[in-house]
């Protein structure tokens, strides 16, 4: 919030000489608003980023897609995290075979069938043992595309499009044939994202998203730390100018 224009004040110093004070861009504390790449939703409670992929893939292909973006199919550590997911607007495209008010996507659980006698019996497991604090879903609704030969089914989380249903946290869990194609939810750790939306590796210098393109910070655990700022003098010979929002000390002169 430092002054862009030169602010000159004339004060009498010792000996009667005039002292000129110039206020240049002064670095202020910055609130960093982005810890996820574009298209991802950030949740502070788990320091994680989430994204729904719309391209219909079977469970195993969805696992690989999430891994390519340094993530995994989402699992949940607490009810608050699940409520955050359910409350989001994921902008899911309409599918001709899905009711408009319901959305389903793969998540990182599998249902292991242990008994097929009179009714299906089994239990949920985490597909990939990544977290020590993961809650397991309740008894599922069994999908219509089940095969009698399959002993492992894959989890689909159903959320609702209507805001009133979404914000009340209503949802369902399905155990579905893993080779069915579906949208899916990826989860990854929060990361450093620079002012040009590039992902920054741990330990590297970068300019974080925010209002000051002259900050240089170190990426540590997805957070900008040890930031230093460059101070820019106004462009010479220019009365009116505009600062470039993404380039440090770059100005456009607006004089006629």
TrEMBL record:
CDD domains per UniProt: CLECT_DGCR2_like
Gene Ontology cellular-component terms listed: membrane
Domain C-type lectin: 45-187
Coiled coil (UniProt feature): none
SMART domains referenced in this protein's UniProt entry, alphabetically: CLECT, VWC
Annotated signal sequence range: none
Superkingdom of this protein's organism: Eukaryota
PROSITE patterns per record: C_TYPE_LECTIN_2
Protein name per Swiss-Prot or TrEMBL: IDD protein
Gene: Dgcr2
